[in-house]
Specification:
single chain, mainly beta, 10 Kd Chaperonin, Protein Cpn10, Chain O, 34% strand, elongated
């Protein structure tokens, strides 16, 4: 299935939750924290400004981004978890 986000929305594949602690203890699914980082899978065309022109999105496909813990909407695409967020809900882009 192919999803194309609308306007200033971004489709993100969240990073995997940590399976074990720094000390090597394995965590059950219920104790794992939701990841707040992921890879951009698709980006909408941009938000319409007051003049009816599209603004250029500040992220692109393939970027690794950080977002708020409860931001966006969780969706499943082909059995995999994804998030759809507005671009304004993104907190930053991870530089490599």
């Amino acid at each position: 299935m192919k999803i194309s986000p609308l306007d200033d929305r971004v489709l993100i594949k969240p990073a995997e939750a940590q399976e074990k602690t720094a000390n090597g203890l394995y965590l059950p699914d219920s104790a794992r924290e939701k990841p707040m980082q992921g890879k951009v899978v698709a980006v909408g065309p941009g938000k319409l400004d007051d003049n009816g022109k599209r603004t250029t999105p500040s992220v692109k496909k393939g970027d690794t981004v950080i977002y708020g813990k409860y931001a966006g909407t969780d969706v499943q695409i082909d059995g995999q978890d994804h998030k759809i967020l507005k671009e304004s809900e993104l907190l930053g882009v991870v530089e490599k």
